[in-house]
Amino acid sequence: MRRRDVLRTGAGVLAASAVGSVATALPTESYAPLGSATVDGTQEVTVSDDGKTAYVAAGSGFAAVDVTDPASPTVVAEQRDLLADAENGPMQMVADVKADGDRLLVVGPNGPSRDKLVKAALLYDVSDPANPEQLAVKKVDHPIHNSFLADGHAYLTRSDFDNETMRIFDVTGDSFTEVTEFGIIDHDEKWQDVHGWLRSLHDLYVQGDYAYFANWEAGTFIVDISDRANPEVVSRLGGLDATKLAQLKQEDFSRIGIQPPGNNHYVTVDDAAETLFIGAESWDMYPDDETRGASGIDVWDISDKANPTELTTIRAPGSPDESYQGKFTTSHNFDVRDGRLYTSWYYGGVMIHDVSDPANPERITWWRDPESTQFWGAKAAGDRDFFVAGNMGPGQDTTGGLMTFPDAAGEMADPPGVFTAPSNTSIVTESDWPDYVAKESQTTTTTAQPTTTEQTTAQPTTSDPPETTTTQADTDTATPTDTAADSEGSTSGFGILATVAGLGVGLGAARFRRRRDD
Fold it and tell me: What is the Cα Rg of the chain in Å?
């Protein structure tokens, strides 16, 4: 019997308790966090190969957390004010860290800023996690929104809209030696006409001979990097038509890129690289209409990487208010290990899904406390029996940290009233989309009714979300959902994005807002 099967047989009775600032009054015989460690500015988390150390990106630096005992995680190293002596230092907006072997990659800033910030990738020796030793610094002239570290190579996103590319560096010699730079424009020049925010290389994942690009509205691209000096696109999954994206005006970008069906925000694959998971991030920008705001995770069969097939969609949990100002529950960063998917949903908590049958994911765990937590990411702790999650805290000026959870099936006792909203009530076909966008951009009402091809009746809310929605693969079409016109009263049309930036989330939106201001 597999370890995962053994864990599932003990579902429901887990003697676990929360500690620190996220402690709850839940009964001990229910699913609950194992422990927590306070790290100010918590964002992305990653875990060492042996599952004994977690690393936390923390805005002004990073922290190493000993999770040898997951019930008592302990901060053993914390480095702030990185590159303080550099011009425009120290580093700020450090939102991503990646670990591989005894190396740690730290990058930033994760988006544009009015301030002149030092932009760099830092490589550390973490063979002694309590004493990280800086090995190399690579200063660049662009933000680095996300990164990856694998097999002696660092992969950085060039996040400046003009050049949304992947930069590959050889770091086997404890220095950064650039190998190549590649983006979807190198694959097909038609993307040059699309604004960089709409085709942002928001995140990437690398495993074996392939890199996986999450290119926002352009879709997800599978890229062959067996020859790292000459990457080649193998296939494209989902995304909107480049010609139509190029026709959009900037005032329409948020309507397309932030409302459901969302964007290609985060991507990862299973152990065998036969199943691909694509997370979308979205909000309800127009609460007065009947369209919900939270997006979920699409599941694809990529056993034939040249001919991917979409299998299903894992729907997001919901809340009464899925706008930026509410308890939004859209998908964020996640991980897959040994047939299990570990997910974070901001205020919607963390979940585990059994994806051993990827066409039929089964949610086996859901923990949430929207009054005290807001999760950035969830990662498996190697082959150990727990996973970690980065808690940003419930709002501005709150302290978050690293939390640990049992890697087992279970149910909370007396879960809070988080529910799943009804599915989208109106669908706009791609053929209707350009006229619809043009029409919507000229109106200020919140009751406009676009042409639709499908309409359903809103269903009552429920405490348990439907698990999945089976879909048909179609890599060349898209169905943007019914949205209403901007009613925020902002003269620029992006007042709501300022709120996103203030919350420290929705970084793609924040990047666009800054670009527009500049």
Answer: 21
User: In angstroms, rounded to a whole number, what is the distance separating the alpha carbons of residues 334 and 336?
Assistant: 7
Distance CA 264, CA 213 (A): 9
- 365-416 pLDDT, tens digit each: 999 999 999 999 999 999 999 999 999 998 766 789 999 999 999 999 988 8
Alpha carbon distance, N-terminus to C-terminus of the chain: 58
Domain borders along the chain are 489-518
Picking from 382, 387, 381, 373, the residue whose alpha carbon sits closest to that of residue 345 is: 373
d(CA 457, CA 132): 56
Report the alpha-carbon distance of residue 231 to residue 254 in Å, rounded: 31
**Which helix or strand (DSSP H or E) is residue 508 part of?**
helix 507-517
**What does the pLDDT look like over 174-222, one tens digit per residue?**
899 999 999 999 999 999 999 999 999 999 999 999 999 999 999 999 9
Model confidence, pTM = 0.81
CA distance 87 to 73: 35
495-503 vs 507-517: helix crossing angle, rounded to 10: 130
